[in-house]
Design a protein that fits this description.
The complex is a heterodimer of chains A (458) and B (423). Chain A is an alpha+beta fold. Chain A folds into four domains: 4-90, 2-Layer Sandwich (Uridine Diphospho-n-acetylenolpyruvylglucosamine Reductase, domain 2), CATH 3.30.43; 97-215, Uridine Diphospho-n-acetylenolpyruvylglucosamine Reductase, domain 3, CATH 3.30.465.10; 217-333, Alpha-Beta Plaits (2-Layer Sandwich), CATH 3.30.70; 334-419, Alpha-Beta Plaits (2-Layer Sandwich). Chain A is 37% helix and 20% strand. In chain A, the strands form four sheets. In chain A, strands 15-12-14-13-17-18-16 form a seven-stranded antiparallel beta sheet, sandwiched between helices. A five-stranded antiparallel beta sheet of chain A has the order 5-6-10-8-9. In chain A, strands 1-2-4-3 form a four-stranded mixed beta sheet. In chain A, helix 8 runs antiparallel to helix 12 and helix 9 crosses helix 11. Chain B is an alpha/beta fold and 423 residues long. Chain B folds into four domains: 6-100, Fumarate Reductase Iron-sulfur Protein, Chain B, domain 2 (Orthogonal Bundle); 104-150, no CATH class; 165-299, Rossmann fold (3-Layer(aba) Sandwich), CATH 3.40.50; 304-421, Rossmann fold (3-Layer(aba) Sandwich). In chain B, 49% of the residues lie in helices and 8% in strands. Chain B is built from 24 helices and nine strands. In chain B, the strands form two sheets. Chain B has a five-stranded mixed beta sheet, with helices on both faces. A four-stranded parallel beta sheet of chain B has the order 7-6-8-9, sandwiched between helices. In chain B, helix 5 (41-52) crosses helix 8. Chain B is globular, with a radius of gyration of 21 Å. Classes of the chains: A alpha+beta (458), B alpha/beta (423). Chain A binds chain B through residues 20, 22-25, 27-29, 31-35, 46, 72-74, 90, 92-93, 95, 112, 114, 116, 135, 137-138, 264, 324-325, 327-328, 331-332, and chain B through 17, 19-27, 35-38, 43, 46-47, 50, 55-56, 59, 61-62, 65, 78, 80-82.
Chain lengths: 458, 423
């Protein structure tokens, strides 16, 4: 428990209205987007400046109080759950877009800016921030950076780390540093910016970020391809790419997901299809036309039974709404769901899908597959019920084997969600101990008292 | 805990739907101002589940948290897992009222005044004497019903009618052409129309009787119950439901020009039933309810091109505000726009975020008037962007709040009910 006298100190720093201690408020900051990780903090603080955060960190460091930064709380790794209590540093009110620089195509933002709000502001200037975690309606830039988030558009545009030029960070000691800068090229010593990107809030608090932007593509098209075998769909992904087209998204829905979406909101998806791929191309109109033609041609050549090009944006929106509804469809159908985040090299997607099918049979559990097929980041999800011990145990075994299988195929245990609490056991099992030691060494150097989001990653 | 949690158990399934993705935060007008997790659906839902699990009690702060929701349903409309958070919030309020009772002011307003139509009328009359001094003389109205009290917070308030609608209209109104009626329609006035906008009520009766419809206006009709049952007083809510069901017998439809009333009457079945008989009775009643906008377009199928614009609106530009109770509670979006577009001589300009709540939220604005103003500021920005001369809507509740905020923002726009525009 936190010392009573500290509450008064914090009130002096951020103001009484920005310090929450009621039982109800603490409960409301005990969770994130996962279902299994819950722990209440002792206090929730809402700082709105770098100076306030530095002052808070100095006290926390002196008193050895755990600090867990939190943006929108949309993450699905347990990352923003204050698992050892202490302070939740809620950054949602520290949310100004400081500058949009059209000439240099950069933006400077505070950590609490929500991605959707940023992209709406950028759209007015003809710009966009390409990384697109599907939690964009709630996810904040601070969290997106801390988790190195990605989404469907990764196929063409990559993930968050490719769009962070520089950061202002408050260290656990309360010192403020600037890493990186505002230029596209920057090789001044170790790349410390990358240290903080994907640090999951364990090394410091991002208080300002310099983002690299892209011009908004003037045209886009959506193509839906239907397959009678999900493995064929997997193969189609790299066939399209090896034929010289890089769509900005390639998303996969399997038969089970298609049918649940049709139940929730009928939109004419082919219910008997084993899998559907959704492609999106974007760029200048002529290129988009050509790329669309090429995708249609390749999909047909390599076994798609039906290929549809959305005739207008309304039809395209319908398909992408279906894709976004995919997760809800999965979560709504079972009391407990393991949503995996394994990622394999693209060419091994069919192998991974086959593996999932085998395991579903072997353990008699339902395993559904949807995800960002374009970058090998699938989300095989296992439907189970924590109250049904026998079923749950089988589901756990199946999940363990999916993860081992993905690693054997040359993949990783998490593509975009991060380790947090959710994947710790796999991280310890799979990661080289030497590598973990280096990580721990860095952590000890930056955070000697282990107060920044303790209990995460390893 | 001694509570039986009966009302909460009814909504347990709804509460379990939430998968905590947090997307609701983007759509919640309250969260967008406060940025705290207890403002938004996900947080409220989590806390209600904690009560169900026995980990949380109905503390005063809990009351504050579940009270601070506009019930605008923007989160519901955009929820990937289709969580009916409105049911969760209203159910939690009902459980709290059941366990703890309504506070004194609310008790007084709802149980003793609003459910007794004559007494309510008297209080409104009393209020009308003070109406010009409301902004200064707050103390004088301390004992007035809930929403009237709200009007005393320095608001620009609409004048309260000298003669209420109920005292101006006949109970039976035959078609004006003297022919056999095409159908028999019950007209539901609603409090705001009855006490503040009686002209609107007369207008509707005239509109319908001109077109061969017989309109009955039962004097026994009561308040729809929105402010009452959305606050959790289901007991009084069921009494009002019964009054209204009994008042409207032998009609083909029941029409109202208040978006909140039409949705409230339709939705008795969603929130109030305590047994199968009630469920059935509410469902039957709900089928007959039509909002005036949908009645004109979908049921009467009026040829919109023949509608005539009132002279005073000639050459004006109008913009449309979607009341929450029309667009999200009843999925009524296109009908009013079709009417506006069809009116010759009127220009229609869609405002950005037309579906954004105006910030009224019934008794929400009584307790959180500062928030109401902040939320309304966003609405005002949308209105300004259109350069419209008039703001048109179809809910007197929204009208009261829009008039207040247009005046507060020193904007030139006048606020009108859609049917006021039609000759």
């Amino acid at each position: 428990m936190i010392k009573e006298s500290l509450i008064g100190e914090f009130e002096k720093i951020v103001g009484k209205e920005n310090v929450l201690t009621s039982k109800e408020s603490l409960k409301a900051y005990s969770y994130d987007g996962t279902s299994s990780w819950i722990h209440e903090p002792d206090v929730v603080l809402f700082p709105t400046s770098t100076a306030e955060i530095a002052a808070i960190m100095k006290i926390a460091n002196a008193e050895k109080v755990p600090v867990t930064p939190r943006g929108g709380g949309t993450n699905v790794s347990g990352g923003s759950v204050p698992i050892q209590g202490g302070i939740v540093l809620a950054l949602a009110k520290f949310n100004k877009i400081i500058r949009i620089d059209k000439e240099n195509m950069t933006a400077t933002v505070e950590p609490g800016v929500v991605l959707m709000d940023l992209n709406m502001a950028l759209a007015r200037e003809g710009l966009f921030f390409p990384p697109d975690p599907q939690s964009f309606l709630g996810a904040t830039l601070g969290g997106i950076i801390a988790e190195n988030a990605g989404g469907p558009a990764c196929v063409k545009y990559g993930v968050t780390k490719q769009y962070i030029l520089g950061l202002e960070v408050v260290l656990p000691t309360g010192d403020v540093i600037n890493v990186g800068g505002r230029t596209l090229k920057n090789v001044v010593g170790y790349d410390l910016t990358m240290l903080f990107v994907s640090s999951e809030g364990t090394l410091g608090v991002v208080t300002k970020a310099e983002l690299k932007l892209n011009p908004m593509p003037p045209a886009r098209k959506t193509i839906m391809a239907v397959y009678d075998d999900v493995a064929k769909a997997g193969e189609n992904v790299f066939r399209v790419l090896e034929n010289g087209v890089i769509p900005n998204k390639i998303e996969l829905l399997d038969n089970w997901v298609i049918n649940r979406i049709e139940e929730m909101m009928p939109m004419g998806l082919p219910k008997d299809a084993d899998a559907v791929l959704l492609f999106e191309t974007d760029g200048i109109p002529e290129a988009v036309e050509k790329e669309t033609e090429k995708i249609v041609e390749i999909a047909k050549k390599y076994g798609a039974t039906d290929v549809r090009v959305a005739k207008d944006q309304a039809e395209a929106d319908k398909y992408w709404l279906a894709r976004r509804a995919g997760f809800a469809a999965v979560f709504g159908k079972a009391p407990t769901v393991f949503a995996e985040d394994v990622t394999v090299p693209r060419g091994r997607i069919p192998d991974l899908i086959r593996k999932c099918k085998e395991l579903a049979k072997k353990y008699a559990v339902e395993i559904v597959v949807l995800g960002h097929a374009g970058d090998g980041n699938l989300h095989p999800s296992i439907l189970t019920d924590i109250k049904n011990k026998d079923h749950y145990d089988r589901a756990v075994k199946a999940m363990d084997e999916i993860i081992e299988g993905a690693v054997e195929l040359g993949g990783v245990i998490s593509g975009e969600h991060g380790i947090g609490l959710e994947k710790q056991k796999f991280f310890r099992k799979i990661e080289n101990p030497k590598v973990i030691d280096i990580m721990k060494g860095i952590k000890a150097l930056v955070d000697p008292n282990n107060i920044m989001n303790p209990g995460k990653i390893w | 805990m001694s509570s039986d949690l009966k009302e909460l158990k009814k909504i347990e399934k709804d509460a379990d739907q939430c998968m905590k993705c947090g997307f609701c935060s983007f759509f919640c007008p309250v969260y967008q101002e406060e940025h705290t997790e207890t403002s938004v659906a996900r947080g409220k839902n989590f806390l209600v589940k904690e009560i169900l699990k026995g980990n949380q009690e109905f503390t005063p702060e809990m009351g504050e948290i579940i009270g601070k929701c506009l019930l605008c349903k923007r989160c519901v409309a955009n929820c990937p897992s289709k969580t009916q958070i409105d049911r969760v919030v209203v159910g939690a309020r009902a459980q709290m009222v059941k366990d703890k009772g309504l506070g004194f002011i609310k008790d007084f307003a709802f149980r003793k005044v609003m459910s007794n139509r004559k007494a309510f009328g008297r209080y409104v009359k009393l209020a009308s004497k003070f109406q010009w001094i409301f902004p200064k003389g707050e103390g004088n109205i301390r004992h007035l019903p809930d929403f009237l009290k709200a009007l005393g917070q320095g608001r620009h308030i609409p004048a309260i009618a000298k003669t209420f609608l109920r005292d101006q209209v006949e109970e039976v109104n035959k078609p004006q052409d003297g022919k056999e009626p095409k159908m028999r329609v019950g007209y539901f006035m609603g409090c705001a129309t009855d006490f503040i906008y009686p002209e609107l009520g007369k207008k509707i009766i005239d509109f319908l009787t001109k077109r061969g419809i017989e309109v009955v206006v039962p004097k026994e009709q009561n308040c729809c119950g929105a402010a009452i049952y959305f606050s959790g007083d289901f007991e009084t809510g069921r009494k009002l439901a019964k009054d209204n069901i009994d008042a409207f017998k032998d009609v083909d439809y029941i029409v109202t020009a208040c978006g909140t009333c039409s949705s409230t009457l339709k939705d008795y079945k969603v929130y109030l039933p305590d047994n199968e008989d009630q469920q059935k009775a509410y469902e039957e009643f709900g089928k007959k309810i039509k909002d005036a906008t949908e009645f004109v377009v979908d049921v009467m199928k009026v040829n919109l091109d023949e509608l005539k614009l009132k002279k005073e609106f000639e050459g004006k530009t109008a913009t449309w505000h979607d009341p929450c109770h029309l667009i999200r509670y009843q999925n009524i979006k296109e009908q009013p726009r079709a009417i506006l577009r069809a009116l010759k001589g009127l220009k229609f300009a869609e405002m950005p975020n037309a579906d954004l709540c105006c910030g009224m939220g019934g008794s929400f604005s009584v307790y959180h008037y500062d928030l109401t103003k902040k939320i309304a500021d966003k609405k005002m920005a949308g209105i300004k962007a259109t350069n419209a001369d008039i703001v048109v809507t179809a809910c007197p509740g929204c009208m009261i709040n829009l008039i207040d905020n247009v005046a507060r923002s020193k904007m030139p726009q006048k606020v009108h009910h859609l049917l006021e525009l039609v000759e």
